[in-house]
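Consider a protein example.
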Amino acid sequence: MKLKIAFFASGRGSNLQAILEAIREGWVAAEPVLLVTDRECGAEEIAKEFGVPHQRLVAKEFASAEQWQSAVTDAVKASNAELIVLCGYLRLLPAELCKRFPNRILNIHPGPLPEFGGKGMWGHHVHEAVIASGANWSGPTVHFVNEEYDKGDIIVHVPVPVLPDDTAETLAVRILPVEHKIFPIVIEQTIAHIFGITSK
């Protein structure tokens, strides 16, 4: 038995690729049924490579925010997804979708939460803020998603030291491989603990 997962992405999709590789290797008991993007991005090519159905739903191409929200929600419903995983998705999910998937939407954030989260805090913005704060530690945080940016319950934070000569770029280079390692593990554990489905 495999759990159906819908993915959302806005960027190059390196976390998406790490998860899809873990699924292909058989240690995450999941079936990727959909990728939703909000712009042209590298994640779309990864989805194509792995045979994952894809829909690009760009908010400004809809007559209203409500129509976009309905389209996103309908796409997920039509896919029969049971879990949603955000891989660098930069838009706030529709409230209806969050209500339909309580504690069944996962996201990975490149820095500590809640200190370095919120609207506009993604990618290099997070790393720049961490360095500017003088913090000694950063590292990715996996959390459940609710109707506010980065406010869902934290599942795990993996500390990564901030070195004295770090830039946003060098810090990102050290954190990204940790993201690629931890996110598939958390997804596998969530599938096992919440849904009772294991890869064994």
Summary: The first helix runs from residue 14 to 25.
